[in-house]
Design goal:
The protein is an alpha+beta fold and 204 residues long. The protein contains 9 helices and 5 strands, in the order αααααααβββαββα. A 5-stranded antiparallel β-sheet has the order 2-1-3-5-4, with helices on one face.
C-alpha cells in the first residue's frame, strides 16, 4: 500500500485522535467519523478486538507517514532487537531523520520534513541527506543547506514550533542547525497509542 496522500483531516476523524505529525488541523468542529452513516448514528459503533489493534497501528502509520510495509519492517527490526519490542519500535520511529527535522521545529508536519529532505535541502553532517528514513544516533547533527536557510516558511516555523522541542534536541536558530544530544524517548512520543495493541496486530 502506498504512502497516504489524501485528506488528512478525514484520517483524524476516522481514528478519533489528533496526529500532529500528519497535520496541524484538529477535528474539534467535526468530531464524528467521516461518512453519512456516522452523522446519522450518534452512538459510537462497537469495535472488534481486531478493529482496536488496527486503529492503534494506523495511528503510528499515519503520524510517522509510513507505508504499511514500512511500518511492518520497523516492527520486525524492533522484534529482533533485545529488550521490549514496543519501546524498541517507538525508539526506531523517533530516530528517523524526517521525524527529527519535525521535532526540531523546522517544519510544521512530518510530510513537510520529508519533502524538505527529498528535495535536497538538508545536510546530514557534511553531506546531503539521502533518505527521510535514515536513523540517527545521539550526537548526530544536521542542518538546512545554506541556500535554503532564509526561506520564509522555515523561519516562521522554527521560531514558533508546533510542539515543544524535546530537551535533547538543540537548535541554532540563526544557522538552522540541529544537534541531537539525546533522542526522544518513547514517553515523549506525541501520539497517544497503545503500543501493545500494535505489537499484537503484527504478531497475529
Amino acid at each position: 500500500m502506498a504512502r497516504y496522500t489524501g485528506p488528512r483531516l478525514r484520517i483524524i476523524r476516522r481514528i478519533g485522535t489528533e496526529l500532529p505529525g500528519l497535520t496541524t488541523k484538529t477535528a474539534a468542529r467535526r468530531p464524528t467519523a467521516p461518512g453519512q452513516a456516522a452523522a446519522v448514528n450518534k452512538r459510537a459503533p462497537k469495535v472488534s478486538e481486531y478493529g482496536v489493534r488496527l486503529r492503534e497501528k494506523q495511528k503510528l502509520r499515519y503520524h510517522y507517514g509510513l507505508t504499511e510495509r514500512g511500518l511492518r519492517l520497523v516492527y520486525e527490526r524492533a522484534y529482533r532487537m533485545p529488550g521490549d519490542t514496543g519501546r524498541n519500535m517507538i525508539n526506531l520511529l523517533e530516530a528517523r531523520l524526517d521525524n527529527l527535522v519535525w521535532r526540531a521545529g523546522l517544519t510544521r508536519t512530518i510530510p513537510a520534513a520529508r519533502q524538505l529532505i527529498v528535495h535536497g535541502h538538508v545536510n546530514l553532517g557534511e553531506r546531503r541527506a539521502k533518505s527521510p528514513g535514515q536513523l540517527l544516533k545521539a550526537g548526530a547533527s544536521f542542518a538546512v543547506r545554506q541556500k535554503t536557510i532564509n526561506r520564509e516558511d522555515l523561519r516562521v516555523t522554527v521560531n514558533a514550533p508546533i510542539l515543544e522541542r524535546p530537551a535533547g534536541i538543540k537548535v541554532d536558530l540563526d544557522k538552522l542547525a540541529v544537534t541531537i544530544e539525546t533522542l526522544p524517548s518513547p514517553e515523549q512520543c506525541p501520539v497517544s497509542v497503545d503500543i501493545q495493541k500494535v505489537i499484537e496486530y503484527f504478531a497475529q
